[in-house]
Amino acid sequence: MSDATLDDRGRLTLPKEIRERYGDRYHVVDVRDGVKLIPVADDPLDALRDEFADVEKTTEELREEARGAALDEAGR
């Protein structure tokens, strides 16, 4: 872990090893006890395709499962 400081214009410079590992674009998320930086892929759709490449169900099957889970959680 390393420290980063805002400059007089409010800019934050991340250490080189962080930028090399995660890239140059981030979502800034306000969490209860601070902020979180979430890396944004150069091509978010490609990142999603890679993440779910091993999923063997169709989108319709996934939707049906999600609907059922939501209805169960709502106390159907």
From TrEMBL:
Protein name, entry field: AbrB/MazE/SpoVT family DNA-binding domain-containing protein
Domain SpoVT-AbrB: start-end pairs: 4-45
Keywords annotated in UniProt: DNA-binding
Transmembrane segments: none
GO molecular function: DNA binding
